[in-house]
Design brief:
heterotrimer, A mainly alpha (326), B alpha/beta (252), C mainly alpha (319), A: 326 residues, mainly alpha, ABC transporter involved in vitamin B12 uptake, BtuC, B: 252 residues, alpha/beta, six-stranded mixed β-sheet, four-stranded antiparallel β-sheet, 12 strands, 29% strand, globular
């Protein structure tokens, strides 16, 4: 292990975090419409089928999407060198939606994989433009970047809405702009494992990403292939965003809240903190999904909607608890 | 040695560097001085391969900076820019540890860790090793950044106005550290300085630039002279020797 | 340039002429069927566009002056999202039938009071200490996202039949204006414009910044508070009349400033109002008869205005 990774949140915090994640996972398996309990799980074949076909995939999807989005946010923050950006507040998710629109228009029966590819390509373009513009903003005004990102995302979103409206695909657009897990069944979510693989890739290159976050000059001075690592980060962010938007829709704020929470506790040396950011993201999404299933039982509220509220409140909290530490 | 031959740079229509040629010998401290807009930072950036060469050649330790792989150059040359603006929330030990990246690619060996520990000692950062850099004072953060640069273990160290934002005590400490790097560790240090007196007190050689060209270059005592300084900086100033040190009276 | 157009007054006069032409075009092009009815319908929409245009233009100019910055806009503070949320909350508590049955005037008044109240709650604390403008903007935008999300959340809890009632509230629509609301909205706009016009000299001084204004003897805090009440009222009136229009003001004021070439409020206020009317009325006429995109004026304005906002943020950042 590196010197760097020796600093992690202390043991009690780690244990609590893991326990929480485990508890949420178990809860997710048992919450929902349909009779299920520990007893019936092993005696009733219907109950077992429910778990295998619906609950387990749904829980896996939530864990994968949550951790992947948290990492996408983390990587995006190193690329933009700003704490308050993440794929849904920098136009990435909206660009991905544009890509799905384009694929749907040109090839309506395209399998999910192709839609994901198209979405990844447009997400890449949209994010590249955002980063190019953002690197020109002065670093002494950190709030300018997320403001810029939000408006940029709004403009791209408006373009997507307009295009969808003209093409009569507005309802389809609605599906991808609000993330939800209710449609997740075995055989319909496996693409998210690719997102999981990307998280592993990010962890493998964590040191390079940390150096990247120190700025262009420091990166080159330390012998990093700056352009190559930047491109890699871009691909990770775009691909993860595209995959989650295609499979479950846009889930906002996870990529913002999870990395910032861990940064407060343990800093930003990615090799050590990356697993914790992923875990926090997974827990957050899973918790909101469970809440969405319970608020108006037996109806479900999409996790994207729940996070829209929870995440916005947490974002505001983060903004105002900075105490001017620049 | 650092060899710059016939380097010119044009940016947005204006000539930043005009056929600059320079040869700096190994070992020792060289100060790069001159008025604002003289091209000092640009020259340093080019040598450190942070900006692409347009015309001319630059070699550092015999390696051409435009064609040698960047990782290899990083084992030979380290650069600290004026305001690196490192905003990441890292601990001091982690930051200094990244100086070993060119050698170990991120995975610190036992030898690396020993070097890091020794560097922290040398720069008086051992007590601060576990603190986050955004909780340090300006002077401490600057020290940490210089420590990281030094930890890179390179023969050539380039610094761009490292004394900005430091109080007098830390300015002196840093200049003394650079002197030790050259004397005790055999490094070649090239440092851009605004205060001519720091150059006079600590540098072996002075290179003065003006309007994108090298005005004069030579040993300190040959350059720190009233007539030469007036040509470079554009106003008369006296040079005295006080307590055995060359001192430039440029304040009034 | 045509000789004689170098003076701002001349340009204002020219714009006034354009406004008349554009309004005439709007009223007369493509008239079919029952002339009296068509004219009446168009007159209502024209009146709404004029009222909204003037209200948005004047409120944006005043708001930018108080913030001593030309890249802000009052609607970006989340007021439009609050509007949507209020509507959703009303449908949630009253059900669709109850919502549709609210007296339009009462509805208007309620919206107006709610939005003015929130705007004041947001703006006034900002006056009490040195504030970071960008943080203020960012907070406003995030609050906007929060309100929209809350609306979406509530929308899920609403019976699907009632939900249809809400559909129209996303972008501003000039086609569904209630004629009875024109009078209260028009009166508020008129009052607001009169107050702004009377304050044009104080506004010039305030535009120099809080410190300079105080140094020149202006009671800055009182003046700023009063002006912000004015802004809140105008924005609430226009939103309650036709719905949210976040970037119209920004687009209009930046155009107006370029056209008259001066920041003096005696010129800028009328110029912004005239440009707003030209953009709305002219834009609607163009969209309907030339581009065939009736009903999309709101979206187009948001898109173009958003781009302008981005460009200005970027230019400001570079400086």
């Amino acid at each position: 292990m590196t010197v760097a990774a020796a600093r992690c949140p202390d043991f009690m915090l780690q244990a609590t975090g893991l326990a929480l994640l485990l508890a949420l996972t178990t809860a997710s398996l048992f919450v929902g419409v349909g009779a299920l309990s520990m007893r019936t799980l092993f005696s009733d074949p219907e109950a077992l089928r429910l778990v295998v076909v619906s609950r387990l995939p749904r829980t896996c999807a939530a864990l994968l999407a949550g951790s992947a989005l948290a990492i996408a946010g983390l990587v995006m923050q190193t690329l933009a060198r700003n704490r308050f950006v993440e794929p849904s507040t920098a136009g990435t998710a909206q660009s991905a939606a544009l890509g799905i629109l384009a694929v749907t228009l040109l090839w309506p029966e395209a399998p999910l994989g192709w839609k994901a590819l198209g979405a990844a390509a447009t997400a890449l373009a949209g994010t590249a433009v955002f980063l190019a513009l953002v690197h020109r903003l002065p670093p002494t005004q950190p709030f300018l970047v997320p403001l810029f990102g939000l408006v940029y995302g709004g403009v791209v979103g408006a373009a997507a809405t307009f295009a969808a409206w003209r093409l009569d695909l507005l309802q389809y657009l609605e599906i991808w702009t609000t993330g939800e897990f209710s449609g997740v069944l075995r055989g319909r979510y496996e693409l998210l494992w690719v997102a999981g693989a990307l998280v592993a890739l990010a962890w493998w290159t964590a040191d390079r990403l940390t150096i990247l976050s120190m700025g262009r000059d420091v990166s080159i001075g330390l012998g990093l292939n700056y352009a190559a690592v930047l491109r890699l980060g871009l691909v990770i962010v775009s691909a993860i965003t595209a995959l989650t938007v295609v499979v479950v829709g846009t889930i906002p704020f996870v990529g913002l809240v999870a990395p910032n929470l861990i940064s407060r506790l343990a800093g930003e040396n990615l090799r050590g903190t990356l697993p914790w950011v992923a875990g926090t993201g997974a827990a957050l999404v899973l918790a909101c999904d469970i809440a969405g299933r319970l608020i108006r039982f037996p109806y479900e509220i999409p996790v994207g909607t729940v996070l829209g509220v929870v995440g916005a409140v947490l974002f505001l909290g983060l903004l105002f608890s900075r105490r001017g530490d620049g | 040695m650092i060899e710059v031959s016939d380097v010119s740079v044009t940016l947005g229509g204006s000539l930043i560097l005009d056929r600059v040629s320079l040869a700096l010998p190994k070992v020792g401290v060289t100060a790069l001085v001159g008025p604002n807009g003289a091209g000092k930072s640009s020259l340093l950036s080019l040598i450190a391969r942070l900006r692409p060469l347009q015309t001319g050649h630059i070699t550092v330790g015999g390696l051409p900076v435009d064609t040698t792989p960047t990782r290899q150059l990083a084992k030979v040359m380290a650069i600290l820019r004026q305001d690196p603006g490192v905003a990441s929330r890292l601990r001091v030990a982690e930051l200094v540890g990244f100086g070993r990246f060119p050698h170990s690619g991120g995975r610190l060996t036992a030898e690396d860790r020993a070097i890091v520990a020794k560097t922290l000692e040398q720069f008086g950062l051992a007590d601060l090793a576990a603190r986050f850099i955004d909780t340090l004072s300006g002077g401490q953060r600057q020290r940490a950044l210089v420590a990281m640069t030094f930890c890179q273990g390179t023969d050539y160290i380039l610094l761009d106005e490292p004394l900005n934002n430091l109080d007098m005590f830390h300015q002196r400490e840093l200049m003394r550290t650079l002197r030790t790097m050259a004397d005790a560790h055999g490094k070649t240090v090239l440092v851009v300085l605004h205060d001519i007196n720091h150059a006079a007190a600590y540098a072996d050689r002075v290179v003065a630039m003006k309007n994108g060209r090298i005005a004069v270059s030579g040993e300190t005592r040959e350059i720190i002279r009233p007539d030469i300084l007036e040509t470079v900086f554009g106003f008369p100033m006296r040079v005295e020797t006080m307590a055995g040190r060359l001192t430039v009276l440029h304040h009034a | 340039m045509i000789a004689g157009l170098d003076r701002p007054e001349r340009r204002l006069a020219l714009m006034a002429v354009v406004v008349v032409l554009v309004c005439a075009a709007f009223m007369t092009i493509g008239l079919r069927g029952d002339l009296a009815l068509a004219l009446e319908l168009r007159a209502v929409r024209l009146a709404a566009m004029v009222a909204v245009g003037v209200a948005v233009a004047v409120s944006t100019v005043v708001f930018q002056t108080v913030c001593a910055n030309r890249i802000v806009t009052p609607s970006i503070m989340g007021l439009d999202a609050l509007f949507i949320f209020c509507q959703t909350a009303l449908v949630f508590s009253l059900s669709g039938l109850g919502f549709a049955g609210i007296d339009p005037r009462l509805h208007f008044l309620g919206n107006f009071v709610a939005m003015t109240g929130l705007a004041l709650a947001l703006f006034l604390p900002m006056l009490s200490r040195r504030f970071d403008l960008t943080l203020l903007l960012l907070t406003g935008v995030v609050l906007g996202v929060l309100f929209r999300s809350l609306s979406a959340l509530l929308a899920r809890l609403i019976d699907p039949n009632d939900f249809a009632v809400l559909q129209g509230a996303v972008f501003a629509s000039f086609n569904a204006v209630e004629p009875e609301l024109l009078l209260p909205a028009g009166l508020i706009t008129l009052a607001g414009v009169a107050i702004a016009w009377r304050s044009r000299h104080v506004l010039d001084v305030i535009a120099l910044g809080a410190d300079t204004a105080v140094g020149l003897g202006v009671a800055w805090r009182a003046a700023a508070a009063g002006l912000l009440v004015l802004v809140a009222a105008l924005v609430s009136a226009s939103t309650a009349l036709v719905g949210p229009m976040a970037f119209l003001g920004l687009l209009v004021v930046s155009l107006a400033e370029r056209i008259v070439g001066t920041g003096r409020h005696a010129m800028l206020l009328p110029a912004a109002a005239l440009v707003a009317v030209i953009v709305l009325v002219g834009g609607q006429t163009l969209l309907r008869h030339v581009l065939g995109g009736e009903g999309t004026l709101g979206i187009v304005v948001e898109f173009v205005g958003g781009l302008v906002f981005l460009a200005m943020l970027f230019a400001r950042g570079r400086r």
